[in-house]
Batch of 2 targets.
Target 1
Amino acid sequence: MGYTIKNLESVQDMAKQQGLGDMGEARFASGDLDTVQTGVSHQRLKPGKRQQFGHRHDQAEEVYVVLAGSGRIKLDDEVLEIGKLDAIRVSPETMRSFEAGEEGLEILAFGQHFGGDGELVQGWWSD
């Protein structure tokens, strides 16, 4: 079939599955959408919560779009305010992480998918 339609809320919440449900939700939809070259995720952070890790890639450039709420993004050593409909392009090697403001933060992330392309660093963004 030449297309796939999937409601993102029906994709498994990996944050909950990994014991991170108190932080928010993380739904990685590439498999559910049968993508071959594109990575897609939908993430929600609860008000005042920060992702517990930073991540970067070897090859994949990503674009994040803020769908609702506001917060901050840390890109390497720089922390920037972000809000609704901001689109943020991040090069592969740039470490990144998100923090929700008082109304929470909802983002959509997408980019080219490369299997095994990524590094997670626990506790990367700490005060």
Target 2
Amino acid sequence: MHEKILIQAEDGLTSATFVPALGGLGVSMTMPEPKMPGGFRELLYLPEDFSWETPGKISGGFPICFPICGRLSRDGEAGIYLFDGKRYQMGIHGFAHLFPWELLYHEKNRMGMRLSSNEKTLEMYPFSFELELHYEARPGEIVCRHQYINTSEDRVLCYYAGFHPYFYIDPSRYSKDKVIVCAEVSGTFFYNKTLSDIVDSDQTPLSLRSALSNPEINEKLFYLENEGGFELHFPDGAIIGVDFDSFEGEDRPSFPFLQLYHVPEKPFFCVEPWMSHPNAMNTQLATRVLFPGEVDEATLTLTQRSW
């Protein structure tokens, strides 16, 4: 079994565990129980058939999506995009979750890891890059500093990353109709039938307040123009929040898109912060662009408080 890297805050209750060899996946994150001194709760879901030996499709934990979020489609063909006159193939959410990552350092409450371009990534994605994730556990907080580097000497890099957390909805404690997702959104996007591109939008701001069981929010994509985060409100008083700042010199969130997803009969709910919408590699409307040697860097913070 691959090495698990545990980081833990001073309180002994806030922790995160990662497996760099399995796509840099976060497999556990814990926070203090809001009304149980000395207790902690697991925030992440892993499926019963989770493989601890080889990276696989995104199905649980806290993975990163890179160099795309969602699906691709070109001329009706799934998984295809065109760049510089050549067709490339890439699966849903890219490939970062399919490669082993390099462990950069590990301390009691901090760790860092890196994914670099290689021969196999270049077959799918013709860009030289380094992607680094630096995690720190603080009492009641897990902070991720994410960094994207164009290591090419002469080629502009295009990408749009995201996170895909599977939040555990413990069925022994509460049902999905009792857990509320909350966010201040600036608009809503609508998918085509294959969920591979957006076809329309509604730019009406709204205060999203919905039970997780609401079928109207499943596979829904929202836009955040000013607010950078969301919350999950649990009936036992816990509030799990995710906040993300802006890239340097920009005035919008580093992840301006929120994708909601779950399988009703399974004990998880995904609120996925994305940098862009599906198929942006083909439309080129909302990709991040880095010139040779340039770096994008921002932070995402997972918190817990109680009401």
